[in-house]
């Protein structure tokens, strides 16, 4: 009897298992069918969007499209041309007026910069008592069209006793042009011209800018007469023109590191001697505008002369500017 009851219970358990399996199979089938339907709907939506975009896309560029492209290219070309014209205008001396007011709209005749150093106070005092006016006489000379200033840079240790000494001297005499961006050192001397012409232009509007060494005396009246006779001339580069051999041996005086640039003959081009050289306003402006790209050589007068070589500058060789000559009418002499 027990064995018969076990055989009767087995079909009932098998039927329940089959029903459960069938239920889960239906659920799985419904899940898979739903996902397939969603994927098909997504593919249909993407296909419709793609077809719509393709139908709106032009098959070829229209005339208007081509004109737009050409217009952009033409505008780009004109911008480049305008930039080139601006650079050319600057190189010819046209730039924004940034000079200080001098109390008058009249252009000065000359700005004379006397190069000096930290250890040259005695020389400066001698100059102030000889050819260079001081005090009220200096102001009166400026009213007449000539400005004279001692030109000096800053110490390598900014703000030290050397700088403070110059600032104190200038507070009393008011006859310095201090080049804040220039380091006053022997090896930096060739670069001093860039800072001098830029600073002089920024402070005074003059026809001529004159650089003078502190080891010469000036006949101020004779210099003024020469400058007045040259007044109105553009692109004037004046001085005692000289040449000379290029020294290519390290350790020798006047050694030129760039000696190989001067050819097989190793001779400098003609240039104004460094004791006294003069640039007209346009040439000084050229140096100011292009100072960042102007190369300097071992000597300042060579550097300035090289800048003038590539310009349409009028080189004026005047023996009256040769300070060591024996001419009676020279405007400078060794101190």
UniProtKB/TrEMBL annotation:
Lineage: Eukaryota, Viridiplantae, Streptophyta, Embryophyta, Tracheophyta
One Pfam family per UniProt: Galactosyl_T
EC code(s) of this entry: 2.4.1.-
Transmembrane residue ranges: 20-37
Protein name: Hexosyltransferase
Class in the EC hierarchy, top level: transferase
Matching InterPro entries: DUF4094 (IPR025298), Glyco_trans_31 (IPR002659)
A cellular component term, taken from the record's GO annotations: Golgi membrane
Domain DUF4094: 15-91
GO molecular function: hydroxyproline O-galactosyltransferase activity
UniProt family annotation: Belongs to the glycosyltransferase 31 family.
Function: Possesses hydroxyproline O-galactosyltransferase activity. Transfers galactose from UDP-galactose to hydroxyproline residues in the arabinogalactan proteins (AGPs). Is specific for AGPs containing non-contiguous peptidyl hydroxyproline residues. The addition of galactose onto the peptidyl hydroxyproline residues in AGP core proteins represents the first committed step in arabinogalactan polysaccharide addition. AGP glycans play essential roles in both vegetative and reproductive plant growth.
Involved pathway(s): Protein modification; protein glycosylation
Compartment list: Golgi apparatus membrane
UniProt KW keywords: Glycosyltransferase, Golgi apparatus, Manganese, Membrane, Signal-anchor, Transferase, Transmembrane, Transmembrane helix
Cofactor dependence: Mn(2+)
The keyword Transmembrane belongs to this UniProt entry's keyword annotation: yes
Keyword Membrane among UniProt keywords: yes
GO biological process, one term: arabinogalactan protein metabolic process
Membrane topology: Single-pass type II membrane protein
Organism: Stephania cephalantha
């Amino acid at each position: 009897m027990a064995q018969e009851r076990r055989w009767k219970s087995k079909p009932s358990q098998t039927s329940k298992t089959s029903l459960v399996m069938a239920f889960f199979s239906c659920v799985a089938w419904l899940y898979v069918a739903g996902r397939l339907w969603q994927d098909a709907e997504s593919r249909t939506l993407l296909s419709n969007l793609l077809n719509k975009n393709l139908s709106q896309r032009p098959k070829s560029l229209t005339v208007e499209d081509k004109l737009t492209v050409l217009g952009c290219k033409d505008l780009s070309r004109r911008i480049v041309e305008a930039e080139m014209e601006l650079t050319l205008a600057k190189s010819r001396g046209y730039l924004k007026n940034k000079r200080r007011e001098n109390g008058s709209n009249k252009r000065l005749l000359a700005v004379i910069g006397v190069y000096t150093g930290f250890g040259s106070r005695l020389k400066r005092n001698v100059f102030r008592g000889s050819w260079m006016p001081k005090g009220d006489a200096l102001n009166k000379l400026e009213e007449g069209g000539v400005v004279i200033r001692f030109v000096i840079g800053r110490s390598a240790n900014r703000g030290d006793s050397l700088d403070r000494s110059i600032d104190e001297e200038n507070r009393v005499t008011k006859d310095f042009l201090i080049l804040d961006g220039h380091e006053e050192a022997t090896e930096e001397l060739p670069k001093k011209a860039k800072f001098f012409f830029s600073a002089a232009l920024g402070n005074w509007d003059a026809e001529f800018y004159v650089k003078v060494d502190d080891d010469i005396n000036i006949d101020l009246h004779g210099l003024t007469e020469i400058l007045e006779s040259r007044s109105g001339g553009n692109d004037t580069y004046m001085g005692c023109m000289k040449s000379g051999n290029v020294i290519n041996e390290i350790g020798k005086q006047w050694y030129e590191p760039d000696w190989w640039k001067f050819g097989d003959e190793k001779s400098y081009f003609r240039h104004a001697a460094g004791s006294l050289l003069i640039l007209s306003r346009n040439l000084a402006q050229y140096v100011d505008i292009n100072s960042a790209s102007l190369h300097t050589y071992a000597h300042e007068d060579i550097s300035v002369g090289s800048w003038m070589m590539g310009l349409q500058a009028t080189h004026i060789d005047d023996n009256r500017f040769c300070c060591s000559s024996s001419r009676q009418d020279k405007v400078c002499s060794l101190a």
